[in-house]
Amino acid sequence: MIKVLLVDDEQYIREGLRQLVDWEEYGYEIIGEAGNGVDAIAILEESQVDVVFVDIRMPKMTGLELIEYVQEKLHRNIQFVILTGYADFEYARMAICMQVKNYMLKPIQKEELSDILHKLNKEHQIMQVKEQEHYFFAVSAVVHGKYTEDDLETVYSHVVPSNQWKYVSIECMDADSQLKPEEQEMVSYLQAILTEFCGHGVPIMETEEEISGAALLLIPEMYQKNNQTEAEFLDALQRRMSHHFSQTFQVYAGSQENSLEDIRKSFRSVRVSRCLYGLSEDKNKVFYEDAAGRKTSFEISESDIDTLLSAVRENDREKIEAAAQKVFAGIRNSEMNLEMISASIYHILYRLMEMVKEFDDETNQQEILEYIGNESFHHLVMMGRPEEITDFFADYAGYFAQVRSQENRNILDKIDAYVKEHYMEKISLRSLGEMFYINNVYLGQLYKKRYQIVFRDYLNQLRLEKAKELLEDTDTRIYRIAEETGFGKADYFINKFVQVYGITPNQYRMKFKKSGRGN
């Protein structure tokens, strides 16, 4: 509901406004009344108000003085509607100079009030979307550690002060990277649930397309107010989600930091929590602190690593899966701490690099080393669940075999033509590999060699160019542009657009129109 305050020194005017229309039917709630500007300020300072209907001529403080005070002192996005008589037109003109666009002549007519309410409702929705975009952008900047003072101030205005902060990621385990409409609804609903539980909810701040869900900046006050522990609070959150959706949800809680300015450390630690998914006793929730406290113990068996690499060389999926599971079981049962787990993973990667020496072609060697450097981090650290680790080695084996065969190098033109024609559809290297019978990781290497960027960035670049055309040539809503260009969800589209162009899609559209090129 849009919160309304009625301000007029005439009681019968205020009562008449109340009775003239069914405010709730229009989406409004009258939260209070005031007979002058001074009393109105007292209400505004204590209550959330979106729209103020205010008379111009009042004792103690006029309507114009009230508007000026709110604009200069309260710094809140409050819409004003001036109530004026014919004799007060000069005052109304002054109000317009103060960026107040709405005024009504007394006596107020029902049709006029109805029109104003419809107009304000639409403007309020647009403003909410813009404020949400601004807030999400600020949160993204803060959690990535690339924020300005304005970004920090924006985030602080939406959260409760605390000296204990934790980034928590709630992820849909089986969500598609190109969200279907019902999955977009799910992500929006997750944010709504988080807002209800915690006062705020934001999109996942990862730039990886495979991760979908919502996130929150957790502070103890959120669960302590209901006498809950952190685990109990997150359990309740998961149950609420499971009640509405059939997907499996995974919660990753990062490290606890002392200030919002350091939340980026907690955000980064969530990546470690993902890597340790298989080591957690509670598979629905993974806490960074639990995994970080593991004891130092022995390394993975070298013979197990030999078996895994042999399966990779043979490109045998079943053997790879069995060997990878054995290696992962060794990590799980050894109670290794984070440092030793990291060292063991790097040792396996080093052994993979040793396999590169089987090639005489230095170009092939460089390609595989780049693949290991780029893909290993994504699969073994970013998405490090057991099945992801198995997939990494299986993909690497197929890639290794593909490079050795030296076939399919001339197929890129055909694939590229398909991508440019179907960019708005669900496209991934894996789906293209299956369609054109080429190893997906090898295909990714071919794209990077030709365009000097990874396929994901190439596809996003193509989609962003198409999105710019729609922003310039049409009035299509942002969420529709996100759908029509293949981004799926509007939040992800806006985030990508800002990363590349430095402004939001709406800002780009307005800038384009102001330049005169849109005429």
UniProtKB/TrEMBL annotation:
Q: Which residues carry this modification: 4-aspartylphosphate?
A: 55
* Major localisation: cytoplasm
Q: Name one Pfam family in it.
A: Response_reg
- Ranges where the Response regulatory domain occurs: 3-121
Q: Name one GO biological process term.
A: phosphorelay signal transduction system
Which UniProt key words apply to this protein?
Answer: Cytoplasm, DNA-binding, Phosphoprotein, Transcription, Transcription regulation, Two-component regulatory system
**Which Gene Ontology cellular component terms are annotated?**
cytoplasm
Q: Where is the HTH araC/xylS-type domain?
A: 413-511
Q: Where found in the cell?
A: Cytoplasm
Q: Cross-referenced InterPro entries, in alphabetical order?
A: CheY-like_superfamily, Homeodomain-like_sf, HptR, HTH_AraC, HTH_AraC-typ_CS, Sig_transdc_resp-reg_receiver
Q: Which GO terms describe its molecular function?
A: DNA-binding transcription factor activity; sequence-specific DNA binding
The record's function comment reads: May play the central regulatory role in sporulation. It may be an element of the effector pathway responsible for the activation of sporulation genes in response to nutritional stress. Spo0A may act in concert with spo0H (a sigma factor) to control the expression of some genes that are critical to the sporulation process.
How is this protein named in the record?
A: Stage 0 sporulation protein A homolog
